[in-house]
Sequence to fold (688 residues):
Amino acid sequence: MLAAHFRTRFSTLFLWIAAGSALLAGPADYQAPGGGSIQLQAEEGNRVKVTSDYWRLEFDLRNGGALDTIVFPHGSGRNLVRKPFETAVDRWSDRNAPSVEMKSSNQGNVLRLEFSGRMGAAGRQPGPVAFRTTWILSPFMARADHTLVFSEDVMASSVDIGTTAVRGDLNEFGLRTGPTDDPDRRKMAPARFGKVEGEGDEFIAEHHAPLYMLFFHRNLEGFDLTTASDLETWETALAGRGGAGLYRAAAAGDTIQIVRRPVDAPRPVRIRKGEYTFGYYLGLPRIVEKSDRKWKHLSFGNHPWPSDAEIARWAEAGVNIVRLHNDYAADENFWHDGAWPPYDEQGMAEMRRVIATCHKHNIKVVPYFSIHEFHPKAQGYSEHEAEWKRSNDQLGTVYHNHVGKGEFGAQMCPQSGWLDRRKSDIEKAYRDLGFDGIYYDWVMQLACNNPKHNARLHNGADGVIDLLAWTRRLIGDRGTLILHLYGMMPSIAFENFADLVVNMEEISGAEKWMRMGEAPIVTVLAESIPRSPCPSYRQDHARERNQNNISQLVLLGMFPWSGGTGGPVYEETLKLFRAFKPYKLEEYRFRDAYSGAVETGWEDVYGALYSKSGHALVVLSNTSSNARKNIVWRVKPEMLGFEAGRVAVRDASTGKEQTLATSALADGSMVTDLAGYEYRIYEVRPRP
Ligand SMILES: [Zn+2]
Fold:
């Protein structure tokens, strides 16, 4: 009976797809060009597959439409999910639904799937709760909304939303607690990261909904879960009070169990008749075979504005994108966030000169904008502060981000009228000044309960996603979006919208010197969006610290930025850019220092490999301050990207070239000397 019932529903579904409905519910517009395609396939066996250029998701129509497969073809190619995502009220579960109806629609590259039915107990006995699960999927984004429909009051002691288990090798995690557990007065406590310690390790155990959880196999694949803006529903809607939930992750056997349970009560609680919607973003990194590793990026401001000669020097070194980052100066001559025009007449003329000179040299220019900050000196601030501010306490305290004797601005909430104001600021600057894209700072979700715009507990995630999709529409296929993710408040869901991610600011002020292997998980992530780490900002040993950093980053395929008008950090950065300028790195497949592609005889000397048909680059780098002589290095010939009996090996720094049997790359006959922090590129190509 069940099967027959299914079939009927299923054929209805296909008509729906064929009709290609343009219906797309919800207020936010998630259209965003430039991320590739998204495809819906429904197959025999009642499975629905959705494929982007980066991942494949599969939903099981026999079992409530539950998500049971996440595969990254350019990661391991193996399913991450060990136990399907399950939404349940006590013994009634969407996976036991007697039947499920699916609707789908698409618009542009945004696909909407809706699975609905009645939760069932074992044996598919229908219970008192219905469900409607909506997935909004685009190449940039996956959002789930689980609506539970109680047609009468129900006594229940547990409610699960997308509880699952994933592969045990996703053994690094991140957690940002929700605002109730956040000890920071401004509700900005950093994320916590760690590695699973082994069987039975319960590494996340919270009673309040976290803002964010991440599970990752370093350098390979993984995902994050970001609670959508409506925190109130997660926190209190069902149990009538906060802290009645369980958010837990633990190692069990060869899996990681992930429990998301807004109700986990020792005694049943009364859930009132009504509909409740729990939203979250599933952050699926855009994992590719070849990262678009083309960006060489600097920043500049107006103290002084860069000269035309300096800009010519940028171009000569291979710089291809710069950002106008001018969010504070002690003399108050800076771009106050939200102000227009940002400078006086002379300043505006200088800015236009810099933009035009950059364009002459084929360098793109993008302006800095903070998603959250509004400077009190900008127009409209005093009229809107009370309405738009992000606040968390009874007093409605405004959070000013002080610096020096002034401030960057005060924190606004993207779930308020601030979002539209921000869009109009950005659009005006983008169009009036001929920028080539946008740079965003403060790309994060922060908690708020300002009753002037929303008295329910919320966070800014939906507004941030809305802004990012809107920005991609603004800049189109040709514009470049740079997102700065603070490493202690990272987000795959947000950074997915970027062409280039600026990261590692959390360690840029650290006194401790950066060491290989200590990079935070979100810094390295996987072969996906290219990354431009922040340099060390410290003044003590500035050159050496950045030489140290670059000697490591060059092995991880990352090109840090620096300020663009002089100093030792700038010189070291240009030197790195110059070394790689001859190569279109986006055409190469990259294997980093941990891939095993290149091995050396010294423990602090590492190698990485770029390869494509007919050409490879071996990068050797000494991450120690001590010179190393007689470094024996070996390359796995099968990773070169081509087959040849003989190869030409050219030292790119000296120009010296030798022709060898290919076996010489692997037999230990390649030897190099490197000074402290020195890196060197060897070009390898086949010879007849
Ligand atoms: Zn708010």
Observations:
- Residues 297-586 form a domain with the TIM Barrel fold (CATH 3.20.20.80).
- The radius of gyration is 27 Å.
